[in-house]
Amino acid sequence: MKNLFTLLFIVSFLFNNNAQAQNITNTLGANGDFKIDNSVATNLMTIKSNGATILNGSLSTPAKATLANAITLDESDHTLICADGGTTTVTLPTITSETHGRIYIIKAGMIATGQVNIVTGNSEQIDGNSSITLDTNWEFIKLQAIFQTGSLSITTWVIIGGNYTP
């Protein structure tokens, strides 16, 4: 029941931008699919019995532009456009079990002669590098945090997309 409440809270926040579950109907199908509807649309979100999630509609993530010469990303960030003409240093958060899976998109806007240096918060690496530099207008990179313990212990940032050229 706790997981169902958590799911309804998240879905309500995504679609209503508040923490109130209003006009939400859920259905557990014979095949194990869990569907979420509201009075405006049907099949807003389906969670398949195999764990796959289907979202019908758009998904908004935090995005901001900065003129700062230094910025540290946290859980409230997702997409960052660096628009300063000088050098901007972007510090990624330290990787923990809490940051595992987190994705950031960092883009060099109209940087002219500047650059965007991306560094880690705790000596982690980014695809084997201690830092990444974006030095071309409109160049961007998509990064994801990996935190894994056990027989194969990994704590790193990986590049999963973008038009970054090393």
Secondary-structure blueprint:
Layout: H1 2-16, E1 24-28, E2 34-38, E3 45-47, E4 53-55, E5 63-66, E6 70-72, E7 79-82, E8 87-91, E9 103-108, E10 115-119, E11 131-134, E12 140-148, E13 154-162
Parallel strand pairs: 5-7, 6-8, 7-9, 8-10
Antiparallel strand pairs: 1-2, 2-3, 3-4, 9-12, 10-11, 12-13
Task: Tell me about this structure.
This protein has 166 residues and is mainly beta. The chain folds into 2 domains: 2-55, no CATH class; 63-162, Jelly Rolls. The protein has one helix at 2-16, and strands spanning 24-28, 34-38, 45-47, 53-55, 63-66, 70-72, 79-82, 87-91, 103-108, 115-119, 131-134, 140-148, 154-162. The strands form 3 sheets. It has a 5-stranded mixed beta sheet, with no helix packed on it. Strands 1-2-3-4 form a 4-stranded antiparallel beta sheet, covered by helices on one side.
